[in-house]
Amino acid sequence: MRRVAARDASRRSPNPRWKRMAVIGVGLIGGSLALALRRRRLVGEVVGVGRGRKNLALARRLGIIDLATTDPAEGVRDADLVVLATPVGALAEVTKAISHVLAPGAVVTDVGSVKGSVLRDVAPLIPAHARFVAGHPIAGTEDSGAAAASAGLFEGSRCILTPTPRTDPGALRRVRAMWRAVGARVSEMDAATHDRILAVVSHLPHAVAYALVNAVTATQADALAYAGGGFRDFTRIAASHPEMWCDIMLANREAILPAIDATLEELSGLRDFIEREAGGALVEAFGRARVTRRSLRPEKGRPRGKARRR
Hints:
6-phosphogluconate dehydrogenase C-terminal fold, seven-stranded mixed β-sheet, three-stranded mixed β-sheet, 11 helices
């Protein structure tokens, strides 16, 4: 690991809340968190860990990290904050690689979109002298990599923490304060509730978007040249990272499968109404959806009618 000077050393606080932060997976979420903490002078040194040397080099040029390494164990050495920002499917493997070198009292947290599998497969790998807090910042775009990182990504967004009776209270307070400091609205719930909720408001929309794009491509690909704003807005998230979303769907399959079944049932009902030319039933179904959608409050800091990139 080669030591590299920070882009702007004057931004460092003489008494940062975190002395050394290791980010495993310097992409959209991990990189944005590092930038956000830097902006607020809440972190001293940031070490970036990843498999892609080009992405790490870019992260250094952008001032996201100070040091870079492809070795997770080397990257977390002496870190008091470790952020696991890899795809969900890689979290257990990475945690095994770092568990033996975590510093005493180190706080480890993740940003995964599924929490049940994290608490089952990752939390037990954290040694007794370190602390683990499971978390999920609900923010992002369809873009990935260090180039997509933004210091303001979490402002006004939600972040869900899923503590268990074994979660260290002090570590929980520190992680909660960290997310609040970068502008997130933090809430806490059990992992099962988190996974059930995210299955329908995040994971299902991605599945539907992928399916819709593939359906149009398979049936009438030339129509895509005429796609307007509605189609583009609806399917924007189908541009998201395929491997990452494969991991999420499989890790949360117990919650996503019933959600997909419910969607298929709704589509089957609409198909039946259309086939029977049941205009009244169609209007009623569309009307219910319209009322529900219009009742949603715009997210904090985001004007109504402006689509959020997620």
